Amino acid sequence: MSKTTIGTDGKCRCAWCDSAPEFNAYHDTEWGFPVTDDRRLFEKICLEGFQSGLSWRTILTKRENFRAAFEGFDFHKLATFDDKDVERLLQDAGIIRHRGKIEAAINNAKRACEMIEREGSLAAYFWRFEPDADEIAIPQTMSTSPTSIALSKDLKKRGWKFVGPTTVFAFMQAMGLINDHADGCYLRPEIDDIRRSFVRPV
């Protein structure tokens, strides 16, 4: 099965773009571009947790609702949420009303605040887990990797929740820790160029 598709604009993209009309813009402007902004990193790992068992389209179409409900994923603010906030969020039809996932997002906000104290930034921590280029020989053939397993294990040891190896691998793909654009996708060489000049956080 081909891992690429030709869009109406004539550009060759990853084949998953055909799955939903919202995916082209997400693919072209976000997916796989290296990210160092702590709030964006935190938002993404939370949303990947909410996606567990669901489709990314479900989460993407609700993303603005999630941002409104979770204080724009400002983890300092989210860390102050209590049981009343959990009950309120369970009534919010604009998000995924799953108690475990909501509680995990609040818990992870607290863990993110702790990580800032210890590591300086979320970016400095996550980018320490950037895998070697040869870890993924063929793009889009893996749903976990040795590095995603290691990152998942370390996050869980630090008390994070809903951060299994598959969730973490999807996070790494989206946040540019790896370039998993398909061979032939017009963005793959562009992402390679960006990654070559990208300054890793320390």
Automatic annotation (TrEMBL):
Gene3D superfamilies assigned to the protein according to its UniProt record, in alphabetical order: Hypothetical protein, domain 2
Protein keywords: Metal-binding, Zinc
Annotated GO biological process: base-excision repair
Pfam family, one: Adenine_glyco
Zinc as UniProt keyword: yes
NADP listed as a keyword: no
One Gene Ontology term of the molecular function aspect: metal ion binding
Chain residues that bind Zn(2+): 14, 27, 181, 185
Protein name, per record: DNA-3-methyladenine glycosylase I
Organism: Thalassospira lohafexi
Lineage: Bacteria, Pseudomonadati, Pseudomonadota, Alphaproteobacteria, Rhodospirillales
